[in-house]
């Protein structure tokens, strides 16, 4: 399917689940990350929280990122969707993923980071437990380079208590 903006969206088949869990749409912008994409995507599809869709947004990559995304979608057609667009930058890639999302909750993961297996389960539990909470942040792990496997943010985090503005500008 091609949206009016020229963005190509490959549809996933509907989720087949008898559980009334809330769907989480994981938005993963991807630009020239062929070396990391599979590990990042696997950290999503292997989450212990089952009601997820991963939306990989290929932002005009020049390497094999799009081909790898399509191969992953073929392996997990019920869980992965692929959006392909001309290079528009990180913010627009995220926005394209958000527009394609069907979930009640949104989660952002960079294509060179990974999550621990219980990451989404713990995030959704917080949101379900306290309806007044609108946003939950967490941590990821680096892929590649001298920081490989290390937490993205220090723990405990000594930064000031975040608000929506600082969270979005920190991404």
Task: Write a brief caption for the model.
With 171 residues, the protein is α/β, with parallel strands linked by helices. Helices cover 29% and strands 19% of the residues. The strands form 2 sheets. It has a 5-stranded mixed β-sheet, with helices on both faces. A two-stranded antiparallel sheet has the order 6-7.
Question: Which features would summarize this protein structure in a list?
Answer:
single chain; 171 residues; alpha/beta; 5-stranded mixed β-sheet; two-stranded antiparallel ribbon
Strand residues, percent:
15-25%
What is the tally of beta strands? 7
Spatial sequence of strands, sheet with the most strands: 1-4-3-2-5
Q: What does the overall shape look like?
A: globular
The computed structural class is: alpha/beta
CA-CA gap between termini: 29 Å
Computed over alpha carbons, the radius of gyration is 16 Å
**Overall average residue pLDDT:** 86
**Looking at the chains present, what oligomeric state does this protein adopt?**
single chain
**Main beta sheet:** 5 strands, mixed
Percent range for helical residues? Answer: 25-40%
């Amino acid at each position: 399917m091609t949206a009016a903006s020229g963005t190509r969206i490959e549809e996933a088949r509907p989720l087949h689940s008898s559980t009334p869990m809330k769907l989480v749409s994981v938005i993963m912008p991807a630009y020239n990350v062929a070396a990391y994409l599979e590990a990042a995507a696997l950290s999503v599809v292997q989450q212990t929280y089952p009601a997820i869709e991963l939306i990989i947004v290929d932002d005009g990559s020049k390497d094999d990122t799009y081909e790898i995304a399509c191969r992953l979608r073929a392996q997990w057609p019920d869980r992965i969707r692929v959006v392909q667009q001309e290079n528009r930058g990180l913010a627009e890639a995220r926005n394209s993923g958000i527009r394609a999302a069907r979930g009640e909750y949104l989660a952002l993961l960079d294509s060179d980071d990974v999550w621990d297996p219980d990451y989404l389960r713990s995030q959704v539990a917080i949101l379900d437990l306290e309806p007044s909470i609108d946003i939950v942040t967490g941590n990821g792990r680096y892929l590649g380079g001298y920081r490989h496997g290390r937490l993205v943010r220090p723990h405990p985090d000594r930064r000031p208590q975040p608000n929506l503005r600082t969270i979005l500008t920190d991404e």
